[in-house]
Amino acid sequence: MVNISRICFRKYGNFVDNLRLYVRGGSGGMGLPRLGGQGGNGGDVWMVATKSMTLKRIKDKYPQKRFIGGSGGNSSVQALKGQKGKDIEVLAPVGITVTTDDSRIVGDLNVEGDRVMVAKGGSGGSLYSEFQPKKGQAKHIRLDLKLIADLGLLGFPNAGKSSLLTALSNAKPQIASYAFTTLRPEIGKVMYPDYKQISVADLPGLIEGAHLNKGMGHKFLKHVERTKQLLFVVDVCGFQLATKTPFRSAFEAVQLLTKELELYKEELASKPALLVVNKMDLPDAEDKLAELKEQLQKPEEFSDLLPDDMIPNNYMTFRHVVPVSTITGFGIDHLKTCIRLSLDEDAAMETSAIHQNKLRALRYQLT
Description:
By secondary structure, the chain is of the alpha/beta class. It has helices at 2-12, 55-61, 161-168, 217-224, 250-264, 285-297, 332-366; strands at residues 18-24, 45-49, 66-68, 88-92, 96-100, 105-109, 115-119, 138-145, 149-154, 186-191, 197-202, 227-235, 273-278, 321-323. The strands form three sheets. The chain has a six-stranded mixed sheet, with helices on both faces. The chain is elongated. Residues 1-13, 175-183 and 207-218 have low confidence and may be disordered.
């Protein structure tokens, strides 16, 4: 098991989705009492969004993870007003939320060029401070990616998520005959003939009780929040995690996944979702698929298959149910089409909502 963990860490260790930094504004400059001179203010520290940056690059480029603004210039006979200290600009990825250690939101970097001041420089010495300068703000901040992919693959271990990502995209995740082969998200790009690209994240395998932080627990569920839509992946013939755990059918797997989402954060279960029924190359797969589709049409009639505490409050409704085999390639092209349709549908609705809001704002201004 130790060797497996080392291999996985090397493969997936490049992904960084949050980073803690120390930031401090520059100290102000000294005032000049005999002439009433004012010291310059210390430099501020800013986070600036740019598409070419990643959290991994920040971590590698600045291993100390410390950013300090320049000190303000002292007042002098030659310059009664001291120069302002140099501002520090830290380039950060687009799609970042900046928070303090106590989870207070400092700001968001949503589009390229967005700027957030994270530490203000101290004021220079002046008459009001008896010509003594002040130190700059000092704090630790956290940078958290809000969105890691358009689509997140959601499934129990050995459902075939890593194999599916390989079949769909240009990603080459580690695939092996172990229950847990994904320790960190692996991001792949699905390419379309019109050059449209859709990002898909293979998220760490979930186990029952993840909402209680069992297994990868909250680390896994945190990543689910950062995808636009969900792609449930289940083994058509069901699965059993270990000899001491119960066997779960494909229908049970779907409902248990839904319940884990609800228990962690109920709104996650309302995300748009598609269902991939994998391993259609196995014997009796067609019969198992027909049974699953029947159960999904009226899930409440089959709730007795589940433990009472794992019955979802609301059963998931899938936009598409797509049978595939990552071994033979069956259904992969159809799945790509369904993914594109689902994301385009949401994008169109979002664009329409923006236009409606703009029209309402314009009517309000004209009245």
